[in-house]
Amino acid sequence: MKVGVLALQGAFDLHARTLEALGAATVRVRTAAELADCDRLVVPGGESTTMSMMAERSGLLEPLRDFVGAGRPTFGTCAGAILLASEILDGRPDQHCLGGLDVAVRRNGFGRQVESFETDLEVPALAAAGLGDAPFHAVCIRAPVFERVGPDVQVLARVDGRPALVRQGAVTAAIFHPELAGDTRLHELFLLG
Ligand code: GLN
Q1: 148, containing H or E segment
Q2: Ranges of each domain in the chain
Q3: For ligand 1, what atom is nearest to the CA of residue 10?
């Protein structure tokens, strides 16, 4: 199994190193050919408008849509969650989304005063997968808010009552940065799924 990490911009390196520490073969994906080689994909945090622009320039938009549409497991975190959404609020007018997840997501939705914060999440899906019932430490950096989640979207964890970790089919998305938690369980869950 080869796990791609979209490496156009943002926090890709720490995701790749976390996956490698778990024994996964990883590919830093910058081209369609590199993506074609992958069975799974992590779309990291960073800046979704920049990632969208770079994906367009490097001819990756359609291959990424096809990858997600084909049901290959994909994990988007923060900006990556924005990229995977079907609708982006407060995006740039020319910003693209991949549409694997039936949600409306608002960029920087937590507002300026609380742009960045950390909190502990209860994630019952971790315990259900045998990964223990300790809370997961969520680092939220200019995090988005899922304002609407479609009927086929499962909410796996919440922050202040708002969905923070969601899953629809093979797509998982977090509003936070799991690669900064010092806790590999969400990467393990992704590799198991
Ligand atoms: N606010 C950023 C965006 O719009 C996401 C922030 C992050 O990934 N930490 O893409």
Answers
A1: strand 145-149
A2: 2-192
A3: 8
CB 107 within 8 A of CB 52: no
Q: Measured in angstroms, how far is the CA atom of residue 43 from the centroid of ligand 1?
A: 12
Q: Is 78 a catalytic residue?
A: yes
Q: What is the DSSP letter of 164?
A: E
Q: Does position 66 have pLDDT exceeding 90, yes or no?
A: yes
Q: Could you tell me the pTM of the whole model?
A: 0.97
- What is the number of the ligand 1 atom nearest to the C-alpha of 46? 8
Atom of ligand 1 nearest to the CA of 51: 10
Q: What is the CATH number of domain 2-192?
A: 3.40.50.880
Task: Give me ligand 1 centre to Cα 176, in Å.
Answer: 9
CA of 113 to the centre of ligand 1 (A): 16
For 71-115, what is each residue's pLDDT tens digit?
999 999 999 999 999 999 999 999 999 999 999 999 999 987 667
